[in-house]
Amino acid sequence: MLNFQPWKISLIVLTLLIGVIAAAPNLFSRAQLDAAPGWLPKDQITLGLDLQGGSHLLLEVDVKAVIEEQLNGVVDSVRTAFRKANIGYSDLGVKGNSVTAKLRDTTQIDQARTLLKDAAPGLDQSVANDGSITLTLNDQAILDRQRNAVSQSIEIVRRRIDETGTKEPTIQRQGADRILVQLPGVKDPEHIKALIGKTAKMTFRFVDTTVSADQARAGNLPPTSEVLPSAQNGGDGQPMAYYVVQKRVMVSGENLIDAQATFQDAQPVVSFRFDSLGAKRFGDATRENVGKLFAIVLDGKVISAPVIRDAITSGSGVISGSFTTQTANDLALLLRAGALPAPLTVIEERTVGADLGADSIAAGKFACLIGLVLIVLAMMLLYGLFGFFANLALVLNAILLLGALSLLGATLTLPGIAGIALTLGMAIDANVLIFERIREEVRNGRSPIASLDHGFNEARRTIVDANVTHLISSLILFMLGSGPVKGFAVTLSIGVLTSMFTAVMVTRLIVVLWYRQARPAALPV
Amino acid sequence: MFGGIHLIRHDTRIDFMRIHKPLMFFSIFMVVASIALVAVKGLNFGIDFRGGILMEVRTSEAADLGGMRETLSNLGLGEVYLQQFGSPQDVLIRLRQQEGGDAAQGAAVQKVKDALGTSVEYRRTEVVGPKVGAELIWKAIYATLLALVGIAAYIWFRYEWHFGLNAILATFHDVITTVGLFSLLGLQFDLASVAAVLTIAGYSVNDTVVIYDRIRDELRRYKKLPVSDIINQSINKTLARTTVTSGLTLLSVLAIALFGGEALRGFAIALVWGIVIGTYSTIFVASPMLIYSNLRGLRAKAAAQSTGPAGQTNVPPAGASPAGQPQTSAPKTAAPKAGATTTPATAKPK
């Protein structure tokens, strides 16, 4: 019992020292830490959004839309390919995850198949006897596209959020089609939600002047055009106007390299610049179509439809369209950040104000402190000097726990604070087990040294068994929980580990050091 | 030197086994009643599981609940639940999940904000869409079952399957009655509640393991004592520890319930109950149930394998008091002097 090897003592003391040093930064403010010398540890406990205030958004990528769009693209290429090769077909369309078409002349099947290998690469072909061809996206291809769509969305969301100047956002994939966005300090996420919710797919297309909007809406619509509403609403909440716009895209938003909100004639406008390819296409198209109208379409709505006065070969231009400064800024931001491959929906939102977070911390701290004081008093009362030893270990345990949380960068949440209070209560259990065991040994007439020895050794196995089961349930909570619950599991798991260490090692060390000094004839338990 | 108070006299000998049968019926009744309650009355699911909208607002003056209710009821968002909590300025607004999918939820929040205006402070807004809620329920059930399986496996591995089975039965007892309590009191059942239930499971097993450890010890030590006596003796010997630990943990959890703020109150209440029921079930469910397991058979098996002195099976090892009998000669608090010969004990040579 008394032979506590020096290396063991040094290891315990070292661990405690690291704990104290790691916990220390939490006593200071951020500003004080920044002013401190660089070699000092500065990691503080990360507070969860429920404590520091902020917004947690769970977004879902509409992966179905990605596939749909993909298949619609295939329909277009198939149509073009067949027309060029003069292959007659009927019933061309999307069915589930496939594109189907029926050939009029079944002798052209082989020709069609070769053609489709180029027009629709990567799709599985199957042919029926009656001349119908089915092009199917296989499961792997679908998965790949979904994965790409989510990765791309994450990138775009990150760019958009970065542009708003939000500090330290967390943006991560969750599951197959989810994106978790955490915005510390954001009290009202509405603006960011509005920005994220826009696909921001921009196209420049020609206005179809062969039919009027009214005729087109009545059903007289050429297959190569569509009717789109204007982005501005009239007084009655309905779109101000409708436009007949060609489906063919002259230049798309992908060719934009910059967009800025500026002023023209004291009106907010968005100026943009194309890359070389876009500039060339835009130049060619405008040169050949002077006097015609072209539409600037954003997410299926026409922002403006100006007349082409001259060929625009500089590769830059402005979009005007009754913007406010805010909407011009937002549009510029969206264009700069790029288009989302698929729409995003917010499926979960949790926003906590900073004041509430601060109140929660204060209440949690107070409760922990009260709990600690009560336990300390009770232990002194119940076990006297040994209770004092246990209390010393308990306080060290609390410090170790805080230090571990800081070092690991674990996030402390509101339930996590409850986890700390609970840990303090349970940490004392190990010492209670030891002390009760020692009392028993003393009653059985063992010498003080033998009682201590037995007490610690016999109790140790029980302590380990009891805590491992607890650790199992908190680890499972950690794996499956999310947000605040995860925070609770983290503190509980770390708490179980630190309390096992302090109860078994630290208390033992303290008792041994005391015994060597005091050499009592009887144990004061 | 002050040696502390002995809360439970070491010679306490309560015959737990004698009262275990009526209490077992009581436990079975509580479990059945809990299941019935949940089946009939159901649980007050929070928005985590049910989906919906929760907003916590602080008004600049004492909140006019009637006025707010009228304003919000006119928005056509379905039934509006308003609840005052904490200070008279704090109001919790709850709306059921809106029809029309995920986008409709956000629109409803905006409507509420427009209606209440900027004079109120929006302290918390939580919106859970229909899809997430269903997923969270499954995740919670999955987590609870997985935790129970993990715990059972460990106990089985460390002890015998009898112990594992009984520990899990007792834990189920605690978990089910806790959920029953949520139903009975109409406490909100959300993700934090699941965390509380799992914590209770962990605590309960922790408590059970301590007594099981002792039972296993005593089984080895007193080889011919009836199993029920061994269980009784083990519970009594660990009673002081049980009381102190439960009491202290209860103190710390009570501190959260009383001072930890509104957000943690439900969570802390569940833990308070859990500590009480966990302690109860260890003593009156997990331990007595062991007599229905064939521990003797195990013991015979263990004895056959052990190399210990087979002839001394009824003789306790040196230093231990005769089985189940209080050692009346030992002083209650003062320990014998080191090396004293007044007691029959001999220190184990080190």
TrEMBL record, chain B:
**What molecular function terms (GO) are annotated for this protein?**
protein-transporting ATPase activity
Superkingdom of this entry's organism? Bacteria
Every copy of the SSD domain together lies at 160-292
- Compartments it resides in: Cell membrane
Which segments carry the region annotation Disordered? Answer: 305-350
Please name one Pfam family that this protein belongs to.
Sec_GG
Annotated GO biological process: intracellular protein transmembrane transport; protein targeting; protein transport by the Sec complex
Q: Name one GO cellular component term.
A: plasma membrane
Q: Is the keyword Cell membrane in the record?
A: yes
- Keywords assigned by UniProt, alphabetized: Cell inner membrane, Cell membrane, Membrane, Protein transport, Translocation, Transmembrane, Transmembrane helix, Transport
Q: How does it sit in the membrane?
A: Multi-pass membrane protein
State whether keyword Transmembrane applies. yes
Regions that span the bilayer: 23-40, 136-157, 164-185, 191-212, 239-261, 267-292
Could you tell me where the Low complexity compositional bias lies? 316-350
Q: Where is the composition biased (Polar residues)?
A: 305-315
- Write out the function statement from the record: Part of the Sec protein translocase complex. Interacts with the SecYEG preprotein conducting channel. SecDF uses the proton motive force (PMF) to complete protein translocation after the ATP-dependent function of SecA.
- Subunit note: Forms a complex with SecD. Part of the essential Sec protein translocation apparatus which comprises SecA, SecYEG and auxiliary proteins SecDF-YajC and YidC.
Q: Which family does it belong to?
A: Belongs to the SecD/SecF family. SecF subfamily.
* UniProt name for this protein: Protein-export membrane protein SecF
| Organism field | Hypericibacter adhaerens
